[in-house]
Amino acid sequence: MAVIRKAALDSHSAARSVDDDDASRSAARAAGQAVATAHVPQHALAAAAYAATAVRDATDPAESDAALARERRWQYDRLVELRGA
Fold first, then answer.
1. pLDDT tens, 32-62?
2. How far is CA 80 from CA 4, 47, 75, 83, 84, in A?
3. Nearest to 11 by CA among 78, 80, 21, 26
């Protein structure tokens, strides 16, 4: 578990080191939260939120609402697939 914790914390450290790139910061936080699900499954909620935020921030502002909606839909569809598995 120590290796997992270190990987999650390293991802969050990388997020703090990003200056003005919101998308990269959110992507690093999403990775940290995703890794942390190995010890606390509820971290998956934050991973999904940070991933959606990264998509929104990486998209032209005029298209960000649509990109965010597509990402959330993709996430939802993956959950439906996993539930059926």
1. 999 999 989 999 999 999 999 999 999 999 9
2. 27, 17, 9, 5, 6
3. 26
